[in-house]
Write a structure and sequence with these properties.
The chain has 162 residues and is an alpha+beta fold. The chain has a single domain (40-155), classed as Sandwich (Immunoglobulin-like), CATH 2.60.40. The protein is 30% helix and 39% strand. It contains three helices and eight strands, in the order αββββββββαα. It comes from Sulfurovum sp. enrichment culture clone C5. This is Lipoprotein.
C-alpha cells in the first residue's frame, strides 16, 4: 500500500512539474498572439496606384493614448517622396518622427518590411470615435485611412448588427 501511495506521489509531482512549465509557455504564447491580433485590428492599409498599376502601399497602426492621437505609419512606394504630408481629420500633426528600421517601436507593427519608411505621428486628441488619417505625397498621390477608436459594432446602428 505504501508503494502505491509513493508511486502515485512521484507521478503526480512529475506531471505537475511538466504541466506548470508548459502552461507558462502556452500562456506566454497566447498573450503574444492576442497582442498581435489586437494590433491587426487597429491597422489599416491603402494601396498606391498609378495608371491602374499598384506602385506601393501605406499601412497605419492606431495607438491608443490618453493625451494624443498616435499612429505608426509605413510607406512603401517606387516614387520618391516629393512633399510628404500627414493630416488627421484635416489637422496637421504636432510631431512627425521618422523611425529607423531597427527601432523597437516597429515591433508593434504586424505588417512591416525592411523596404518601407516608417513614421510615428502625434496629433491633438480627437473627440470623435471615427478618425481619418490622410497621407499625401505632394500632388502624386493621396490616401485616406479611416480608423475606429471603439469596436466597429459600436459605431453601427442596431439594425445593421442584427
Amino acid at each position: 500500500m505504501l508503494k502505491i501511495i509513493f508511486s502515485f506521489c512521484v507521478v503526480a509531482i512529475f506531471l505537475a512539474g511538466c504541466s506548470s512549465k508548459e502552461n507558462d509557455s502556452l500562456l506566454s504564447d497566447f498573450k503574444n498572439k492576442q497582442d498581435k491580433f489586437e494590433q491587426i485590428q487597429k491597422t489599416n492599409k491603402a494601396t498606391i496606384s498609378q495608371d491602374g498599376k499598384v506602385t506601393g502601399f501605406v499601412t497605419g497602426l492606431y495607438q491608443e493614448d490618453t493625451k494624443y492621437e498616435k499612429f505608426l505609419v509605413g510607406i512603401y512606394t517606387q516614387e520618391e517622396f516629393k512633399n510628404l504630408q500627414f493630416m488627421l481629420d484635416g489637422k496637421d500633426p504636432l510631431k512627425i518622427e521618422e523611425l529607423q528600421n531597427n527601432d523597437n517601436r516597429l515591433d508593434q507593427i504586424p505588417l512591416k518590411n525592411k523596404w518601407s519608411r516608417y513614421f510615428e505621428l502625434t496629433f491633438i486628441k480627437s473627440d470623435s470615435n471615427v478618425i481619418t488619417l490622410q497621407v499625401k505625397n505632394g500632388k502624386i498621390w493621396s490616401r485616406d485611412m479611416v480608423f475606429s477608436k471603439v469596436p466597429n459594432y459600436l459605431n453601427s446602428k442596431k439594425d445593421d448588427i442584427f
